[in-house]
Design a protein that fits this description.
ABC transporter transmembrane region fold; binds magnesium ion; binds adenosine-5'-diphosphate; alpha/beta
């Protein structure tokens, strides 16, 4: 993985800015925690010196650096003081730890929420073409996993960057007051080695983890593809090849897993051993100082504890780069989405009017990231109230052409005009108000039947919804549903049949009551019986509206005022059914091929 650009770090930090005040309090909590952590270790000194070993020194407790001293007349009072101090110290540690963690989570969650909302907003604004070009899995993974990763790495990063140095600083400061500096230095001398080792192992571990992850993805791929295609595997006699392939991937996974195991089972003990070296230096030299009475037993005990407690923050700090890399990579994927330029603002432009005609002038269209244009130069003109059809083989560009009209796609050349006004000058929102569409893949949301119809005109009353459903021949079957219009139709309308879904979509279009109707293979997915049920509703919907239709049924097409034959990115011919049958070879072929 190449290092993410620094600008991403700055951009991630910008998300923290609105929460400066809370971050300030959280940092305060971290400082408090570090101080009281060191104090709690310092309390070992009087316990050892004055409670367990009576010989040592006067009955005082001094906080170094600030030199606050407390003196006591007898050991019982001192004991009471130390116990109370322990309670106070741990209480403060707990409170500040809670405050720090709660506030950091709050800030992190707010950032997560903001990123997720921004992403969803972007999905509502980015060019549709881009959105459809992405795999749905990727969109989900960015919105869920990557945002989560940014959350955890932000919280961990900020916490570790600030808290751990605090903790280390106060532990070192404490150590320096307990024993001669030379001993502190000697005991801490192993720390850089430990840090180096952690980094080294971390890097190796990352490589092994990535390797294992890739292998598990390969295995999943082989499994899902080959098990599903087992029929083909056997017919073609490829069982042995596939088995060998699978076993090879399997072996690869074993290899990387064992690498991981070797690293993780080696790094722990090695680290403990190195830490042990540090402690042994502390014990040997510190013990010598105790024996020669240069320091007290209490100083020695507190010092060794401080040496041992410094190990954890060091480890967190060395892992910092890992969480940074993870978060930055996720941020990069998120920002890549957020930086997609918006589609034209739906509210910019003059209000749409459609009184006379819609026309295409040398319209071209090429999908983003592809070479060949789907539409090369399309010229056509449709007068208000006309019914026109588009025919041509699958993949020729009929759907693409229709999507240009509500500006769900923008032409890459030429111009579409409505009453002579170029579409880019018209506000997309008002333009889309003029249109309703019924397409092959009906989109229904997991809501009630009523709400799904109402999507055509939010705010429409129940009576209007019902009238639309009647017009679409949907009222009857809706009445037969368990909760009628209040029935929740399940994910994508899965509880309804294809014909029922289609009639709900038609009711939605009826409710919208728009002057232009786009029908893109509205009945193509249906069996012939459902198709007949839907056909009447479609015809009723189309009557009195300017209608652009792509259909496979000859009866639908031949009734149209004009039929456009699409071929090779152009309008090859246009005319009524009979005209085309007599003069257009391509049309005759299409008719016979598609058995229109
Ligand atoms: N989002 C997309 N990105 C790239 N190419 C696309 C996209 N959508 C459709 N295409 C391609 O554009 C061509 C026309 O598709 P389409 O308009 O759906 O054809 P039709 O509706 O006539 O069957 C096809 O070759 C299709 O593969
Ligand atoms: Mg199509």
């Amino acid at each position: 993985m190449s290092p993410p650009p620094r600008s991403h770090l700055r951009r991630m930090l910008a998300y923290l800015r609105p929460h400066r005040a809370l971050l300030g309090i959280a940092i305060g909590c971290m400082g408090l925690y570090a101080v009281f952590h060191a104090l709690s270790i310092l309390l070992m000194k009087p316990i050892l010196d004055n409670i367990f070993f009576t010989t040592a020194g006067p009955l005082t407790f001094t906080i170094p650096y600030v030199n606050w001293s407390f003196g006591f007349p007898d050991r019982m009072k001192f004991l009471a003081f130390v116990s109370a101090a322990i309670v106070l110290t741990y209480f403060t540690k707990s409170i500040s730890s809670f405050g720090q963690e709660y506030l950091m989570t709050w800030v992190g969650m707010r950032i997560l929420q903001r990123l997720r909302n921004q992403l969803f907003e972007k999905y509502t604004r980015m060019p549709l073409e881009f959105l459809e070009g992405e795999r749905a899995g990727k969109l989900l993974s960015v919105s869920l996993n990557d945002v989560g990763l940014v959350y955890s790495s932000t919280v961990r990063l900020v916490t570790d960057v600030i808290l751990q140095p605090f903790v280390i600083l106060f532990l070192v400061l404490l150590a320096l007051t307990l024993v001669p500096p030379v001993l502190s230095v000697a005991s801490f001398v192993v720390l850089p080695f430990i840090a180096g080792l952690i980094t080294y192992f971390g890097r190796k571990m990352k490589r092994a983890t990535t390797g294992a992850q890739v292998k598990i993805e390969d295995l999943t791929q082989v499994l899902s593809e080959k098990v599903a295609g087992m029929k083909i595997v056997r017919i073609f006699g490829q069982e042995e090849t596939e088995r060998a392939k699978f076993e090879r991937e399997s072996e690869g996974y074993f290899h990387w897993s064992m690498k991981q195991a070797k690293i993780s089972s080696l790094s722990g003990p090695l680290m403990v051993f190195l830490g042990g070296l540090g402690v042994s230096v502390a014990v040997y030299y510190g013990g010598y100082l105790v024996v020669t009475q240069a320091i007290t037993t209490g100083s020695f005990g507190a010092f060794v504890t401080a040496v041992i407690s410094i190990y954890r923050p060091i480890k967190s700090l060395t892992n910092l780069n890992n969480s940074y890399q993870q978060g930055a990579a996720a941020a990069e994927r998120i920002f890549a989405f957020l930086d997609v330029p918006d589609a034209p603002d739906p509210d910019v432009g003059q209000p749409a009017r459609f009184e006379r005609e819609m026309s295409f002038h040398q319209v071209q269209f090429t999908y983003n990231g592809t070479e060949a244009p789907v539409l090369k130069n399309v010229d056509l003109s449709i007068r208000k109230g006309e019914h026109v059809a588009f025919v041509g083989v699958s993949g020729i560009g009929k759907t693409t052409l229709l999507m240009l009209i509500p500006r769900l796609l923008e032409p890459t050349g030429g111009e579409i005009r409505l009453d002579g006004v170029p579409l880019p000058e018209i506000s997309p929102r008002t333009l889309r108000r003029l249109m309703a569409a019924v397409v092959q893949e009906v989109v229904l949301f997991n809501d009630t039947v009523g709400a799904n119809i109402q999507y055509g005109r939010p705010g429409a009353g129940m009576a209007e919804v019902e009238a639309a459903a009647r017009a679409a021949d949907a009222h009857e079957f809706i009445q037969a549903l368990p909760q009628k219009y209040e029935t929740v139709i399940g994910d994508r309308g899965s509880k309804l049949s294809g014909g029922q879904r289609q009639r709900i979509a038609i009711a939605r279009a009826f409710l919208k009551n728009a002057p232009i109707l786009i029908l893109d293979e509205a009945t193509s997915n249906l069996d012939s019986e459902s198709e007949r049920e839907v056909q009447n509703a479609v015809e009723r919907l189309a009557s009195g509206r300017t209608t652009l239709v792509v259909a496979h049924r000859l009866s639908t097409i031949r009734r149209c005022d004009r039929i456009y034959v699409l071929r090779d990115g152009r309008i090859l011919d246009a005319g009524a059914h009979e005209e085309l049958m007599s003069r257009c070879e391509a049309y005759r072929t299409t008719v016979s091929l598609q058995s229109l």
